[in-house]
């Protein structure tokens, strides 16, 4: 009897590609009480074709794509292959104001739809379901609607399989916005499914340090809003740079919390699962274009700007056309160093060497050796993640967040150094490494 397919239980980010590729619809996704999404396999339908294993971004590496001349001629161990790094912003002030950074993704999608370069775009929209926050992928054909989809969703995302099945039925050419893990899965799936390959014209990736669980937003409401109830609207970013979390209730009450405040409360640090901790993409290396918050270059930021890493010739063509048509403005950055964030260093560390990991996940052959800072990061994650995992421990988590700076003060100072000068030195060293060496 053949073995059932492996779906790695603790190394799954819930990207959904296994369910998309399964010819028997044997995989469904469920939200667990801890707020993470996990696949459930119906083995009675499974025919053991193992396609799900072959596309899983944590089991199969599509890095070979990088050596096929699709991606830019510059390469860097920390950001992957690229053609250009620029700082850009939407020329539409409202799109820029409502976007996470500079509204560049939204402007680019509007441009693609208006000029009929694609029939539809596939993007997630935020929904509040039974008081919990999720993103659900949808197929959008009307450019005027895209503003409703702008802004980052810091919550689990569902439904890519459903949206892409609709795209396939309607024979649409599309652009999709996705997290790095989903892009890796999609690139794998495109090898096996010619329909998917034909329909996906542009893949836009966002930088991603982690995806907070559905419980993370609950924790923020519990911490800042005294357990507000009947929430029917949530927006994590937008309203300028770096923006606000906006929460509205059915009875018309409205709250806003500064991005930095809610993000640093434990929301951004401890409510993400082991898969995100082990993941060592961050920069969406397999996208046509990657988009990020310009944390490392906030000069004249105004309403917001987006850091853009253009990777493929197709990505550059469409970006420059949108610039020529007046949708986007940009300027080149003095150096590609601005595309590396402190979190990139953590993601590109050889996790297998850290103290407590039982897995070794390496992507390509370019990873940094662990340092004091990455080991401290791991201990901090384990402690915080444990406290975040149970609602009854959330008061302790809040205390931990307050005390942490004193506990880790010298090491945090070291981190700061790493963030600035050390990053530059490391970049100089690793920029000479070649992918696949
Ligand atoms: C979970 C998450 C983590 C991130 N982590 C980092 C980080 O560590 N460092 C960093 O520099 N940048 C990070 N980003 C990216 C950053 O927040 C902005 O999304 C990016 O700079 C683009 O800004 P924009 O104003 O051009 O996009 P907008 O014009 O605001 O458009 C955003 C687009 O992204 C889509 N989108 C929103 N959420 C998701 C999602 N979860 N999955 C797929 N598509 C989505 C929207 O539908 C919309 O089309 C993260 C984004 C997400 C969603
Ligand atoms: S092995 Fe094939 S049929 Fe079974 S769950 Fe995976 S993709 Fe579906
Ligand atoms: S950190 Fe990696 S695994 Fe987690 S959501 Fe982001 S891309 Fe996916």
From TrEMBL:
The keyword Transport does not apply. SUPFAM superfamilies: 4Fe-4S ferredoxins. The keyword Cell cycle does not apply. Residues 3-32, 37-68 form the 4Fe-4S ferredoxin-type domain. It comes from the Archaea. It holds the Pfam family Fer4_7. Keywords: Iron, Iron-sulfur, Metal-binding, Oxidoreductase. InterPro entries: 4Fe4S_Fe-S-bd (IPR017896), 4Fe4S_Fe_S_CS (IPR017900), Co_F420_Hydgase/DH_bsu_N (IPR007516), FRHB/FDHB/HCAR-like (IPR045220), FrhB_FdhB_C (IPR007525). GO terms for molecular function: iron-sulfur cluster binding; metal ion binding; oxidoreductase activity, acting on CH or CH2 groups, with an iron-sulfur protein as acceptor. Its cofactor is FAD. This is Coenzyme F420-reducing hydrogenase, beta subunit. The lineage of its organism: Archaea, Thermoproteota, Thermoprotei, Fervidicoccales, Fervidicoccaceae.
């Amino acid at each position: 009897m053949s073995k059932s397919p492996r779906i790695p239980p603790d190394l799954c980010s819930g990207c959904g590609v296994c369910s998309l590729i399964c010819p028997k619809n044997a995989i469904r996704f469920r939200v667990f009480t801890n707020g993470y999404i996990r696949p459930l396999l119906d083995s009675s339908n499974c025919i053991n074709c193992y396609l799900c294993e072959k596309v899983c971004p944590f089991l199969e590496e599509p890095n070979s794509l990088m050596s096929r001349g699709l991606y830019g001629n510059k390469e860097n161990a920390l950001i992957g292959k690229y053609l250009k790094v620029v700082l850009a912003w939407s020329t539409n002030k409202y799109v820029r104001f409502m976007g996470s950074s500079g509204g560049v993704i939204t402007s680019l999608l509007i441009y693609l739809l208006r000029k009929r370069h694609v029939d539809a775009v596939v993007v997630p929209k935020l929904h509040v379901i039974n008081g919990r926050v999720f993103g659900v992928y949808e197929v959008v054909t009307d450019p005027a609607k895209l503003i409703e989809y702008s802004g980052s969703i810091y919550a689990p995302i569902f439904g890519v399989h459903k949206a892409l099945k609709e795209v396939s039925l309607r024979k649409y050419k599309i652009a999709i916005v996705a997290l790095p893990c989903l892009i890796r899965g999609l690139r794998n799936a495109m090898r096996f499914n010619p329909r998917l390959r034909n329909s996906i014209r542009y893949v836009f990736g966002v930088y991603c340090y982690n995806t907070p669980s559905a419980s993370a937003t609950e924790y923020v409401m519990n911490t800042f809003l005294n357990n507000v109830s009947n929430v029917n609207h949530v927006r994590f970013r937008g309203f300028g740079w770096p923006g606000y979390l906006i929460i509205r209730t059915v009875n018309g009450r409205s709250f806003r919390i500064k991005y930095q405040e809610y993000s640093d409360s434990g929301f951004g640090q401890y409510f993400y699962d082991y898969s995100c901790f082990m993941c060592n993409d961050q920069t969406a290396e397999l996208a046509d274009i990657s988009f990020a918050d310009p944390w490392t270059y906030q000069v004249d930021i105004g309403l917001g700007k987006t850091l853009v890493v253009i990777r493929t010739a197709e990505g550059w063509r469409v970006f420059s056309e949108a610039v020529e048509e007046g949708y986007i403005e940009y300027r080149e950055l003095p150096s590609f160093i601005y595309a590396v964030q402190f979190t990139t260093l953590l993601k590109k560390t050889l996790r297998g060497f850290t103290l407590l990991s039982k897995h070794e996940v390496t992507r390509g052959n370019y990873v940094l050796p662990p340092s004091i800072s990455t080991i401290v990061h791991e201990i901090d994650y384990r402690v915080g993640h444990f406290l975040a995992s149970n609602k009854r421990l959330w008061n302790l988590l809040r205390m931990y967040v307050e005390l942490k700076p004193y506990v880790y003060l010298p090491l945090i100072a070291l981190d700061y150094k790493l963030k600035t000068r050390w990053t530059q030195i490391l970049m100089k060293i690793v920029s000479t490494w070649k992918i696949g060496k």
